[in-house]
Amino acid sequence: MDRRCILGLFATTLISVPAIPNAAIAQGKSLKDQLVGTWIYVSSTGKRDDGSAVDRPPAQGALTYTADGRFHFITVRTAVPKYASNDPSHPSPEEAMAVASGVVAYTGTYMLDEGTKTAHLNIETSSVPNLVGAPDQRRIVTSITDEELKITNPRTPAGVTLELVFKRAK
Q1: Contact at 8 Å (CB) between 76 and 61?
Q2: Cα–Cα distance, 159 to 143 (Å, whole number)
Q3: How far apart (Å, rounded) are the C-alpha atoms in residues 160 and 2?
Q4: How far apart are CA 135 and CA 151, in angstroms?
Q5: Which residues lie below 8 Å from residue 33, measured CB to CB, with a gap of 6+?
Q6: How many CA atoms lie within 13 A of 65 on its CB side?
Q7: 29: helix, coil or strand?
Q8: Are the C-beta atoms of residues 144 and 150 closer than 8 Å to each other?
Q9: pLDDT tens digits for 56-90?
């Protein structure tokens, strides 16, 4: 080959390489890479096994997945009453019940099955003691974008399937 031919091939290669998308970019991020971060609770819907709807109270909360396999979840009803005594260590029985039934929080570790888009949870501590160490705790990612996460909790302790929507924290 002469120098002009080699130079022409080299120039063509330099021009063509940027036009070919990087395989990692073309395939997108892994599910774990997309999931890692903090997500702010937006809404949820619930269904019983018979398909009937379960009313969901207005709530605020967050969900965090870390790169090293830990997660944290909390939701608190927005209508939880304040303590009349202003002392959280001495609520009335009614106040204590309203707060206890209005908060769901748990934390632990997770393993992600990218193929089924399922996070398998090992709940280490929870405001609902029955969740700690409970088998088959999983959350199925039904949709994820840079800004929105939708997950399904296929079976709560009350036998309800929850669909939860989150937006990425800024």
Answers
A1: yes
A2: 23
A3: 74
A4: 19
A5: none
A6: 22
A7: coil
A8: yes
A9: 999 999 999 999 999 999 999 998 888 999 999 99
The closest of 43, 66, 46, 65 to 54, measured between CA atoms, is 46
Q: Where are the beta strands (DSSP E) in the chain?
A: 37-47, 53-54, 59-65, 70-77, 103-113, 118-126, 137-144, 148-153, 161-168
Among 27, 32, 10, 12, CA closest to 149: 32
| Contact by Cβ (8 Å): 122, 110 | yes
Which amino acid is present at 7?
L
pLDDT one-digit tens code per residue, 84-136: 999 999 999 999 999 889 999 999 999 999 999 999 999 999 999 999 999 88
How many angstroms separate the CA atoms of 38 and 3, rounded? Answer: 56
Q: Which residue has the tokens 């009614």?
A: 94
Contact 153, 162 (CB under 8 A): yes
CA-nearest of 31, 11, 10, 2 to 110 is 31
Token representation of residue 16: 């063509």
